[in-house]
Amino acid sequence: MSPDRQTLEKARAGDAAAFAKVVDSCYASIFRFAMKYTGQRQDAEDVAQQACIKLAHSIASYRFESAFSSWLYALVLNCARDWHRQQSRQRADTLDEDCGEAVADSADESRVYLRQVLDEVDAMGSGYRDTLVLVAGEGLSHREAAELLGVKESTISWRLHEIRKRLASAAMQENGHD
Predict the structure, then answer these.
(1) What single-letter DSSP state applies at residue 151?
(2) 150-35-137-145 Cα dihedral, nearest 10 degrees
(3) Where are the alpha helices (DSSP H) in the chain?
(4) Of 73, 93, 113, which closes a domain?
């Protein structure tokens, strides 16, 4: 996910070819992160596109104080959060329609399951989805996720513990075990 320093410096200075190299070297990681965050290909494409636009506007502000990958994760995470807020507003308006369509589309059960998991985690409050995607989805360590989210490492561990408990409880309820 990290282009070399020389390419980054050229991209920061406005070199379009260097910026294209940066995007080429990072796009797969950007899209993968967005896919894990959104759970839907079309939504992931939207988030990735917004992240690339934001990268174009923000790359000059990258100062080499941290790893480029960490800086980029923060940028993509912010785009994903913006998308999520927008989706939450839209979902509140069309909840009845969306529920019927999601259940009816059983062709891709894994996507429906991922959406259910993300919805369950969303119900837990702020920060849980970010924690889950960064640690379980992207493989970041608890320390890396904590630095990126601006919380203590113990908070990441606690959030993951709470997510596991919540999902286990939801699975038990779904299977008829109260």
Answers:
(1) S
(2) -10
(3) 5-12, 16-38, 41-58, 68-93, 95-104, 109-122, 128-132, 142-149, 153-174
(4) 93
